[in-house]
Prior knowledge:
The protein is an alpha/beta fold and about 180 residues long. Helix content is about 45%, strand content about 20%. It has a domain at about 20-145: Glutaredoxin (3-Layer(aba) Sandwich), CATH 3.40.30.
Amino acid sequence: MKKLYYLLSGLLLFLGVYTQAQNINWLSLNEALELQKTAPKKIIVDVYANWCGPCKMLDKNTFQNEDVANYINANFYAVKFNGEGDSEVTFKGKTYNNPDYDEKKKNSRNSAHDFTRALGISAYPTIIYFDEKGEIIAPVPGYQSPQGLEMYLKLFNTDAHKNITSQEEFNEYYENFEPEFKS
Length: 183
């Protein structure tokens, strides 16, 4: 019985360490923007909704991927933003909230947050990339696999996007990209 206890304790400890290594250090947008002032990094913002199935798949299949989590934690400030939530966000001197938020609808379709509208988000999930100065680089709507997200993470982190000036050049980048993240 004692051996079983130690075996299970060791297994739980291993699983705890293993899953901790896969956790992304999520911040609020306000926190990420504040950190940029002293330690500039790009920001990745996962704009989601509580009712959104592909958003839940992104959390489970992509953001829990060890390679994804490690790369994001090393190179970005990561932000989760509920596109229909009731948080308050200050961006570029303007404060955004959701005046039509209905607490009774928090797990179903709710009113879009004013910040979601200001960003032009019309689909969930959408991942928005910001540069080190808090300027928007690009929104990328839709579910992304770990390898699909890897392409965008590396495109924006390395500033390779600055050399892409046409759809043809992006298509070439896409076709030649060789993912390294495990599934």
